[in-house]
């Protein structure tokens, strides 16, 4: 996607902000909109291109997107000079009740209508594109009319919105359903035009109660790095890729090593010098 993020990035979090300030060669940061005050943008977020990433917009809500949340996304994008805004193909609110979680949409024509209308409403207030991320979901609705690839293809046809392809989510969903993650990636990308993938996420996961969970607190497993390399091979060129970490942050040297591994799988130059602390 023209004008979007480039290279290897990492999610900007206050817990590792000082470490990130000392790292060289990162392509971009992604910042959680709900953790940001547009009037008080940290200086370190102005050093690199920024993607504003929302988690509470609830674009799948039949009652529509809340105007104040759309306005907040727009204000954050303007304050940071963001190159892109992204949100989840999910709902967090229904019937006026906040769930506190990203919940999957039923893959139906009716849900597509709701999602397309809410995406259009949000994009009308943004000065930059809006990318949409399929989530890691522990269940599917029984009345699904499409598989995930079919649903995402129809969503792109309806909205033209680029995709934030979370490779770790694809891996988790496939493992929990007994499917081949590579086949899932192939089916998804086969129905999208060139340039439809804005960027990718990778993250760690762990097994709890017999299911694989997308944790963002564990190291990126080799299986996800291999799936990222497979994904890159299906695209016209290496996409921007971002490492998500949301707690249990590793020491700086280990974070650098993890970013080097992500860059290698993505076909990027390593963003940071190999080895220990400088």
UniProtKB/TrEMBL annotation:
<dbReference type="InterPro" id="IPR007801">
    <property type="entry name" value="MbnB/TglH/ChrH"/>
</dbReference>
<dbReference type="Pfam" id="PF05114">
    <property type="entry name" value="MbnB_TglH_ChrH"/>
</dbReference>
<dbReference type="InterPro" id="IPR036237">
    <property type="entry name" value="Xyl_isomerase-like_sf"/>
</dbReference>
<protein>
    <submittedName>
        <fullName>DUF692 domain-containing protein</fullName>
    </submittedName>
</protein>
